Amino acid sequence: MAAGSGRHRPYNILEASMRIHRGIGLLTATLLLPLVSSAAADAKRGEKLYTGRCGACHSIADNGAGPRHRGLFGCKAGTQAGFNYSDALRKSGIVWDDQTLDRWLADPNKMVPGNSMAVQLASDPTDRADLIAWLRAATTGEGSCQRAGSAGQGQSAAHR
Amino acid sequence: MSDTQIPSTLIDVGGSRRSFLRRSALLSGAAVALLGGVPLRGIAAHNDAQASSDVNILNVALGLEHEGIAAYQIGAGSGLLDKPTLAVASLFLSHHEGHREVLMGAIKKMGGTPVAAKTTDEYKASEKLNVKAIKTAADVLRLAQRLELGAANAYIGVMPSFTDRSLSQVAGRLIADETMHWTALTQALGEALPKPTLSFGA
Description:
Chain B: InterPro entries: Ferritin-like, Ferritin-like_SF, TAT_signal. Chain B: Pfam families: Ferritin_2. The complex is a heterodimer. By secondary structure, chain A is mostly helical. Helices cover 44% and strands 0% of the residues of chain A. Chain A has helices at 12-20, 22-40, 43-54, 87-90, 98-106, 108-111, 125-138. In chain A, α1 runs antiparallel to α2 (22-40) and α5 (98-106) crosses α7. Helix content of chain B is 70%, strand content 0%. Chain B is built from six helices and no strands. Classes of the chains: A mainly alpha, B mainly alpha. At the A-B interface, α3 of A face α2 and α5 of B.
């Protein structure tokens, strides 16, 4: 069993060249993201990555060292009930979707300085696309966060 | 020619051995500093926000150690492990207790409050540990393996975020222990080691 990164995928050459051309890498990643995440993302692999890399702190159902992820898509950042977030994330104004999650997972410290996740475990765009695909499938259902566009407090605003 | 080469090779070997020993002495010096009441290097130079972000990271790590200790205690008390496996589980448990002491010491030294462990009943009820699903010795080992991998990866993930670099060294040493445990558990389960290089973190 692989410890984290799993099997090789056809994107490797592309990724390698993106790494070489660091300067334009970000741009390339941004342009490719919709393609990677919609067409080719591998949610099954994403689940493995989630268990191995995120599972120490997160689960879908329960708060732990990190907040629960139930209902994640469309949540305002930092609003799952009962979790003690950093001020930085609570006040960030972020709403979670494919794009914001991709930026967060690439480097939370860059996106939200002062956040308390401070984890860099998904520097590879394919890993992030797979993780996000899995999160999208696994986090459906009622969360306990504030939905975007609602002014309600935590608990109640759980409907999608 | 060869007359001079042979002794110089010997001297090289001696020299690198000496510098290796010196480096080892430095490492244990840092460990002593962490455990023995000497302030961590560089703390004074950091501002409150940086120190408190380091403390937050250490407290997340401490929470994982508390949970690991509970899991090993539950596993050891399950009656499912044979004697040799129980001995290894107890050894790993003691390593995690050591980690807990190191982290609590560091957090206090930095002016933070170490997070408390949950109760055993809370750990038993947690969906993450899923203790009620444990039926065999292999289930115990698989839980421990999953927690060790998660902890190793979590430490790798937070390592670049420490503002006090001496904490990165502490994290590195913790990661080495978790990886040692993960490897032993993986072999005990008869599973292959990872084929890809750099398979931890990412």
